[in-house]
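quick one: molybdenum atom bound model?
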Amino acid sequence: MAGPPPPAQQNPEPKPEHNPQVGPPKTSSVGVRGIAESVRYSLAEMGPKRSLQTLLKVNQTDGFDCPSCAWADPGPEHRKKAEFCENGAKAVAWEATRKRVGAEFFAAHSVAELRAQDHHWLEHNGRLTEPMHLAPGATHYTPIGWDEATALIGDRLKALDDPNRAVFYTSGRTSNEAAFVYQLLARRFGTNNLPDCSNMCHESSGAALSETIGISKGVVSLTDITDHAELIIIVGQNPGTCHPRMLTALEQAKRRGARIAAVNPLPEAGFGRFHNPQTPRGLAGPGTKLADRYLPVRVNGDLALFAALNRTLVEREDARPGTVLDHDFIARHCDGFAAAAAAWRALDWPTLETLSGLSRKQIGNLATDVLAARSVVVCWAMGLTQHRNAVATIREIVNFLLLRGNIGRPGAGPSPIRGHSNVQGDRTMGIWEKMPDAFLDRLRDEFGFDPPSKHGWDTVDSIRAMRDGKADVFFALGGNFVAATPDTEVTESAMANCALTVHVATKLNRSHLCHGKEALILPCLGRTERDIQARGEQFVTVEDSMSMVHASRGRLIPGSPQLRSEVAIVTGLGRALFGDDDVVDWRAMGDDYARIRKHIEHVVPGFHAYEERVAQPGGFMLPRGPYDSRTFPTATGKARFTVNPPTAVEVPDGHLLLTTVRAHDQFNTTVYGLDDRYRGIKGGRRVLFVNAADLRAHGLHDGDLVDIVSVFTDGERRARSFRTVRYPTPRGCVAAYYPEVNVLVPLDSTAEVSNTPTNKSVVVRLEPAT
Ligand SMILES: Nc1nc2c(c(=O)[nH]1)N[C@H]1C(S)=C(S)[C@@H](COP(=O)(O)OP(=O)(O)OC[C@H]3O[C@@H](n4cnc5c(=O)[nH]c(N)nc54)[C@H](O)[C@@H]3O)O[C@H]1N2
Ligand SMILES: Nc1nc2c(c(=O)[nH]1)N[C@H]1C(S)=C(S)[C@@H](COP(=O)(O)OP(=O)(O)OC[C@H]3O[C@@H](n4cnc5c(=O)[nH]c(N)nc54)[C@H](O)[C@@H]3O)O[C@H]1N2
Ligand SMILES: [Mo]
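yep, here:
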């Protein structure tokens, strides 16, 4: 028997890693050190020959799309020989490592033993090489053949009395082709239970944008940032770590005179001096200071900030009519201005200052930058999307842009910066628990079956369903569900309720160890690897944050002869479930991905002549009405001003507001190492960043070990043993690393409308470590 799970590693015994070395945070980024880190990590994982072979193909038009973030590539004519960043190099080396995890590894380690290990240890052992099966009651995973594994899943699915008892999760690294066949499989099977990582990521952005401008994506291209925007406001995003190639684009903007403002509770190094490793000036010279203005907003204070900013713009317009607002744009293209303006005029400054943690003067200075700029882009990421009021905050940003017509013209617009390299494409392909009827109708017309119309479960609802015994089969195409989701202990025991859990993965992670009564791990090809099918070598396609669709071709020999592509795994399951005479041509699609692209062309708008256009170097841009022609596909055909009363999470006396962030040495739940160089942390991840005054108020000193206790309507949760680090966070706000503190995030604490877990605002108190 696997036995009861040992204590979650989220709450391990104190280890040396609880006592990292702590130095001052950095005020500049990249430079020689960034290159040295890429080289060191690549050599250790891949060796010299493989390093060169792979790194020179990253983001090249004949190479593969970097598996790290979703930042856009420059046009083909502007690409560098080395078009990757330190963290892209880590992601590539992590995938292309020479280390392997095969049958012997699983024979040597029981599941219980593996479950006691941390995220870094689990993944650093190397690539999975063959399908593994955990039989009911077994203590160890044992090898299983592909045919047997596929038949097993097929049998378990067919045995369900309701297709809605199955859940199909997707992580955002999945290609367009794999995502399309995967959503087709779920819908052909009869369910819309297609939760994805986006539910925890930019769901709030999609919800706010589609409601206000009629499209769930950003309305900006890379050249808007590099060549046109006069002011770029970066809110709740840490580009130095999470989108390092954005620093190059920001530098280009600065060199032509653009201004940059950063809104963030933490003074991230990426806002300081940028030493571009591609230029002599960056390497040896003074570098370029990126942010001109830094607003240390309180955690969850952004709605109040943007409401205050909008109020200021309306006030200044009232004082000098005709000088501030774009009346022509508002009259022609927008609804709801009068109601929004009335609401702003009624706001009072003391409340706005308290909620945002910023002074009227600081906000006024930003308004002055805004008025001086003919075009403004606002970029944001997880700092905004994972709060109770996240959707309202992003709607308020849309208001801000609409006021001065900062949308649908060069250098202006909203730009949610996506996380996973193809998370945006997966949505375009239909990975969503509530795709619109028009999509489902086209799917029906293309394939000749009736897709289910009842909405499915998103991530949080899937966890609830598994917890409550309403789901039997959990299938994950990538990702690390139990570590990425909130309320770790609840989620882990929810998984244990399933009859079967299946993970398609490149590397071993905790989700494979918090399994259902029976479990499978199916090892797949990564982006870097050659994909050969019956009709020859295949490529896949992806869509970046700026709606560019392009091809990705792996070059390396696959890590093991037994690896299958995600497309092959999904179409194989389609054949097992529906046979070769099905209305869906599973086999033909698996043999030749061009066939999948043909179907996509018929089902998904904007993909005409897919095959030809994606063959162009750099690919093609998807149509976006607001971007292309200022047409807003909302119900009224106009962009909508909305009224969003400023709110912020209430923090009782003696409590603090915790935000959860990524360290420089991780990609989500993949922990490359234990350092966070830019924030001055070395050799440990269980740290809590606390303001000096809050430390004093709690009778604590830098270096003390504390337990973090979160407080919610349904009770308390505890994360043990974190080292306090004195850090310039705003008063009352603390920060710690995801996923170690996910144990603190209540499952029922989610954003209004988007149902995204509120990972960025958790009410906590501190206790001496137990
Ligand atoms: N190297 C690396 N790259 C990545 C990832 C990774 O883990 N590692 N993850 C990928 C994914 S999936 C995503 S979604 C993105 C994530 O990219 P980011 O969103 O940049 O990543 P986070 O670390 O979550 O950081 C959020 C930023 O928001 C700030 N913040 C926290 N709370 C608030 C708040 O209330 N208001 C404001 N204004 N700011 C706040 C934090 O200080 C931090 O700077 O990156 C992608 N790229
Ligand atoms: N507290 C807190 N929680 C968060 C967040 C936060 O900011 N704070 N951020 C949220 C966000 S933005 C996101 S996107 C989610 C991320 O949630 P997920 O996408 O579920 O998690 P990842 O850590 O990106 O998944 C890593 C695993 O993916 C597998 N993998 C890697 N490459 C491939 C591949 O090519 N194919 C396949 N099949 N598998 C592969 C590997 O086995 C690896 O272990 O986490 C969310 N959770
Ligand atoms: Mo994400």
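The two ends are 31 Å apart (CA to CA).
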